Amino acid sequence: MNNNIVDLLQLSLEFTPNNQYFKDFLESCLENGVFHKKENAETIIKHINTNLNNSFDREKGLLLLISFLPQISVEVFSNNALSWMLHCSKFIYQRCGVIDSLSIRALTKLIKLSVKFPEVNKETAKQIVPRFLLENVKHKTNIQVSVELLECLQACMSEYSGPSGEFKTDILKLLLRTVEGKPAVVGVAARCVPLLARLGGGGKQGASYKTSWQQQQLSLITLLHSLLNKIYDHIDCVMVAESTSQGELLELESVNEKNVLLRTQRLAAQFSSVSQFLQCMLLEEFPVAKAVAPNAILDVITHAQKPTHASLGSSLEALAVMSV
């Protein structure tokens, strides 16, 4: 690394991570291919590792790592990726929001890149992905689900479907916890839903994938009927037996609001999110032919459109339904 860049890097690292000079320097290095030059790699790696190992400078190390990865060489990645992934895994949910977010972002990028390198790929499948899913999906059932966490989960499911298969039930539970989340969270969760059906082995000619996809589709349809029944629970003629779709009824967080309007709004939010989950299943590519159940889907639409002004009446419940 030439002296000018060395001096600038050293100077930039003296600023706080949220300082605009530091951010501008990293962006400039990325745009000008500074990180791509072999002679610069050793110095950059040294600064990344030094900062990652210092709790006061960890944020800088993560920012530098994230900026470095798009231009990293095969040799450098192969030699350092596993160590960096272990570092990032350790930093997640250490009660520091910025570090949590940056750690997950860096880990996501590392996981996506790892599939291109056989040795790194092997260790990622063996160590990193199971550890991430065990610690952040299976064990931490009370954490707030963030976009960053879901994007990392999506990378694990997409690139490492085998190791992720062991945690399929836990992943489903986590995704269902997002149904009242912000639109960005629900959007990423919805993109994860189709990946659930292809976790684990596919069986002969993808038979297991096909069965799993079909069952998951019917389970979401059953859940939609269940939510509509709760929204329309004061209208007897609108109730539909949830068993008609033949899917396993999935569990969402109970809505026990006494306020009728708030209760209906929450149920409507859940219905909207689950509908988005089903939509992604129908639209996203899948390794085998999908056994779409058009009649079952049409039944949900019919169920949703059943209420009339006459059947709704003029009660508070009716006003709540009409408001959503």
UniProtKB/TrEMBL annotation:
<keyword id="KW-0539">Nucleus</keyword>
<dbReference type="GO" id="GO:0005634">
    <property type="term" value="C:nucleus"/>
</dbReference>
<protein>
    <recommendedName>
        <fullName>Pre-rRNA-processing protein RIX1 N-terminal domain-containing protein</fullName>
    </recommendedName>
</protein>
<comment type="similarity">
    <text>Belongs to the RIX1/PELP1 family.</text>
</comment>
<dbReference type="Pfam" id="PF08167">
    <property type="entry name" value="RIX1"/>
</dbReference>
<feature type="domain" description="Pre-rRNA-processing protein RIX1 N-terminal">
    <location>
        <begin position="40"/>
        <end position="182"/>
    </location>
</feature>
<dbReference type="GO" id="GO:0006364">
    <property type="term" value="P:rRNA processing"/>
</dbReference>
<dbReference type="InterPro" id="IPR012583">
    <property type="entry name" value="RIX1_N"/>
</dbReference>
